[in-house]
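Pilot study result, target chain (118 residues):
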Amino acid sequence: MKYRTSDIRPPPIVKLSEAAKRFMGSSNFIDMGQGLPGHIPPKSVINALAERISHPLTHRYTSDQGLLELREELSLYLRQHSGIDVDPQNEIIITAGGNQAFSGTALTLIQPGDNVIV
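Predicted structure:
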């Protein structure tokens, strides 16, 4: 049986990361790829993380849609700053990154045989 996922190719970020390596020696180069900037967070962030690490809810998975409190805050922000009214329960999803967001969107909306330009 052939699945749609068997034709998925690796994300282009892999090739871009390889190409970026030739600039890494430059003093003006800051690698922001894949969330690995290589800089130590500010002390205030480290302290906040250290405090939060002992909280039991920190070590649980969120729902597939993402943390409801974050979705509610995003909904409020969009309403206040852009006039966009979205339902945080049904119209906002928090993903683990751009690749997951793109893949989920594509697999949801694109059917076999559809023509797509990216």
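One observation from the pilot: The chain has a mean pLDDT of 86. A full batch analysis is planned for the follow-on phase.
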